[in-house]
Amino acid sequence: MSADAILSFEEAMEKYDPVLGFEVHVELNTKTKMFSSAPNVFGDEPNTNVNEVDLGMPGVLPVVNKTAVESSIKIGLALNCKIAESCRFARKNYFYPDTPKNFQTSQYDEPIAYDGYLDIELEDGTVFRVEIERAHMEEDAGKLTHLGGSAGRIQGAEYSLVDYNRAGVPLVEIVTKPIEGAGSRAPELAKAYVAAVREIVKNLGVSDAKMERGNVRCDANVSLRPHGRERFGIRSETKNVNSLRAVEHAVRYEIQRHAAVLDSGEPVIQETRHWHEDTRTTTSGRAKSDADDYRYFPEPDLVPVVPSREWVEELRATLPEPPAERRKRLKQDWGYSDLEFRDVVNAGVLDEIEETIAAGATASVARKWWMGEIVGRAKNADVDPGQLGIEPATIVELSRMVEAGKINNKMASAVLDGVLAGEGTPAEVVEKRGLAVVSDDGPLLEAIDAALAAQPDVADKIRAGKLQAIGAIVGGVMKATRGQADAGRVKELILEKLGVNA
Amino acid sequence: MAAINRDDVAHLARLAHIEMSAEELDRMAGELAVIVDAVKSVSEAAGDGVPATSHPIPLSNVFREDEVGHTFTAEQALSGAPDSDADRFKVPAILDED
Question: Locate the Asn/Gln amidotransferase domain: which residues (chain A) (predicted)?
């Protein structure tokens, strides 16, 4: 397949105005499926989390999962949507082996939630409002593995194997209205929007929200129009863009590709596109065709869902603080600068710092430990900082030991290593590794005498009032005591010894 | 007569993956037109004041608690499958993607 021509992003932006649209599918983390009591569990042996409803056997009766409806309403509320007074399910008819029923049970003309919005904060703090068209309930499809022919690709495959464990898993599909006016920030907005949806469903506790497991999946619609024109261009829909970075890249690439097509005078083809992470390009899927006539009709086996206003308000009362508002509050409470706070957010240690402060550390101490000590270690170990297993209490204990002068900062870092190595609590590590600060002045004075004798010229400078030279002597003492001296006390003793008033 | 012709029937048959002969298409075009007309007379009788309904039984909010019930073993699940491999249903490759 020959590569598509693309324009540079800058040139595309000069000539055209992008319009975006997203369909984000969120898998709910209910115990059971949307319409059957089979377990909703990821990663089990194939075709073991299924029963007659999931396999679409004749004569079966689906029954709606109440928790899934509640989760859907919560998502709708968190997206500032109206919740339908009454809504129903519909059959979306298509033939493909990922659904054994030959239809997907979904919602069509009556989604449970509609007319919402989400305010998306971009990296520089600009807030962009994305309007939500609807959020509707449906079920996931089974998983196909294509075999024979070239590895894993449908092209040339000889047959496919189907696992229906995922069939019937509750999904909420969130659809935006066309997003206009993002301009050159469209790729960034795309990523930020999907990140915000993911954060919201995670915060609500209604989804595991792991993109790498497909809990949150994004279809990205992109079209271009000349600047100043109101009518939308023809769009492409890039399917299953399943990481935040890929969402940004896919939107950027499609903008560049559309621009090249339009520049050549050809019409853009309305089609699905497939994203390829390895080459960071898309390829043509299939064009819109007769097969997209899904012949939706009301699902006769399921009666309408009529959420009473009392029920909706009950659910609203359980909603956690929205992530964006929480960040605003925490930043103010902690007194971090914009840059400090952004670093904390980007490092993914907001929860950890909050817990550490709750455990008794000051905001600055909590930040110093997480950002200065733990984030780097996590990076080296290639895990999330929270996964290192450091308890907030450990940090509080470490910082108290430093404040009390029992250990210095350098030792504290070594103690943390000890805790991570499973050597016990900070106090136990200090004990085992013999890391206590030398606070007995006797050995310190000996080391100071030695350091002064070794560097007489420095000693003279200090006597002459050049106090900044003291670092060299302190350094010598720290070296002699293998870092176990209290640097502050060493300084005092040196000045005392040389008869200098600081 | 209702606006349903032979091409409409052929289109529907294609969507529904039903193979139909020329004679069947002719016959169905006539029969479906009669059915559509019959439905049309119902909607005329209902008038403007009657909202469309998809569920004639006055029932709503039939829910199930989120509690795990029964499942099949893979062997049971696959017992009616024409073909299987590695505990999964084996189907011909179809040139389309999910």
Answer: 351-498
Give the nearest chain A residue to B68 (CA atoms).
Answer: A37
Beta bridge partners, A220, equal A22, A238
Residue B35 lies in a domain: yes
Question: A271 in helix, strand or coil?
Answer: strand
Say if the Cβ atoms of B72 and A148 lie within 8 Å: no
Query: pLDDT digit of tens for each residue in chain A (502 aa)?
Result: 467 999 999 999 999 999 999 999 999 999 999 999 999 999 999 999 999 999 999 999 999 999 999 999 999 999 999 999 999 999 999 989 999 999 999 999 999 999 999 999 888 878 999 999 999 999 999 999 988 766 555 566 788 999 999 999 999 999 999 999 999 999 999 999 999 999 999 999 999 999 989 999 999 999 999 999 999 999 999 998 989 999 999 999 999 999 999 999 999 999 999 999 889 999 998 776 666 789 999 999 999 999 999 999 999 999 999 998 999 999 999 999 988 998 898 888 998 999 999 999 999 999 999 999 999 998 888 888 888 888 999 999 999 988 887 888 888 888 999 998 888 889 888 888 877 776 677 778 888 888 888 888 888 888 888 888 888 888 888 888 888 888 888 888 888 878 777 5
Query: Domain of B18?
Result: 6-41
Looking at the 3D structure of chain A, how many domains does it have?
Answer: 2
Paired with B92 in beta bridges are A159
Separation of alpha carbons A103 and A411, rounded Å? 64
Full domain range(s) for residue A50: 9-293
Nearest chain A residue to B85, by CA: A161
Q: Which of A36, A48, A239 sits opposite B74 (nearest CB)?
A: A48
Tell me the C-alpha distance between A388 and A348, whole Å.
13
Is B62–A48 a contact, with Cβ atoms under 8 angstroms apart? no
A55 contact residues in B (CB cutoff 8 A) = 72, 77
Which residues 6+ apart lie within 8 Å of A155 measured at CB?
A149, B95
How far away is chain B from the Cα of A51, in angstroms, using its nearest Cα?
A: 5
Residue of B12, B68, B84 best to disrupt the A interface, most CBs of A under 10 A:
B68
